[in-house]
Specification:
Two copies of one chain form a homodimer. By secondary structure, chain A is mostly helical. In chain A, about 75% of the residues lie in helices and about 0% in strands. In chain A, helix 1 (about 5-20) packs across helix 2 (about 30-35), helix 4 (about 50-75) packs across helix 5 and helix 6 crosses helix 7 (about 110-130). The structure holds a DNA duplex.
DNA sequence: GTCTATACGCGGATAGAC
DNA sequence: GTCTATCCGCGTATAGAC
């Protein structure tokens, strides 16, 4: 599996449109023109709308795995890494973040996207439980992160939640912020 | 404004289909047949797809206001009432709950739905802050509730979160469960 | 590989009968 | 009020040129 740049550009455009306009309103035409190709060109790389979704699903799995690995290696610890990176901006976030938001939006319509999203959430829940030891604390941190994502979905900022998150971490996470 | 039973049945069917299949995949045909009327019949009551959405938005506002009033009057307190009723089943929940889940799903596509959802969330946030006094605690409880709804959106149960919620409430909410 | 042109089906909305 | 019949536009996918 090489890395065809054109495929990536198409997936980028698809992600953007899902995040900004929501799923199902995104037509192949819109994705194609946003990616700078024609509809025919798009359908050469992804044979159908279904294949396009499948491509994004794969990318989400890959990016989340990498993000989990980065969290485990982070000096601040998994919990702080998770909550910090969850408070982001859909318009200008990291690749993982934007892909995750797109995934959640797609989950409202596509069962396969929902399945992948659940799997990703479960991955974080496991990692958090490993670090925090306490299952209850892990549940709380995971749920707080989920709440932050829901706000992103409905277009509400989560900036004010930073303080609440730090308060929760002070009680749950052993490691200091620095 | 009387209460025409037929309108309500149509809105019920619309809500059900959004919850189960997601927005935008729900056609007027599907809503009509689920409600036991023809497409023409539906379009007599709601002149357009937009009007149908507007009807659900109104209903959401009404139901949420009533639910907030019920929470303020509940002996267990607002925080416990909120978290308890948030842990529900999309397939067989209360009217408010199902409407809220539908609203969030619609938020991924319809800006007006997102606006109403934000307003409802803000209402709960305010009520929680009133009761708990502490703004940080109110943020945490509100975010936990949001996280529970996100799980419902991606089709994941939140039953295991009951214990974590109770733990959080024991610290944040003054009143005992009984 | 990427494009244009086209076939095909579906969903929303209107007209008008009952 | 509720139905059937129909028009119209849009979105997916295919065929085939370059």
């Amino acid at each position: 599996m090489p890395r065809p740049s054109q495929r990536d550009r198409i997936l980028d455009a698809y992600t953007d449109l899902v995040v900004t306009s929501g799923p199902e309103t995104v037509t192949l035409d819109a994705v194609a023109s946003a990616a700078g190709v024609s509809k025919g060109g798009l359908l050469y790389h992804f044979g159908s709308r279904e294949a396009l979704l499948e491509g994004l699903l794969d990318r989400c799995r890959t990016l989340t795995d990498a993000d989990l690995a980065a969290a485990r290696a982070a000096p601040e610890g998994i919990a702080r890494y998770y909550l910090r990176t969850s408070i982001d901006d859909p318009a200008a976030g990291s690749a993982v973040y934007r892909t995750t938001v797109a995934m959640i939006k797609l989950s409202t319509t596509e069962p396969r996207a929902a399945e992948v999203t659940r799997r990703c959430m479960a991955g974080w829940r496991t990692a958090l439980a490993e670090e925090l030891g306490d299952a209850l604390a892990a549940d709380l941190v995971a749920a707080l992160g989920d709440g932050i994502y829901l706000r992103a979905i409905v277009g509400q900022s989560s900036a004010e939640l930073g303080a609440a998150a730090e308060e929760l971490l002070r009680r749950a996470a052993p490691r200091p912020p620095e």
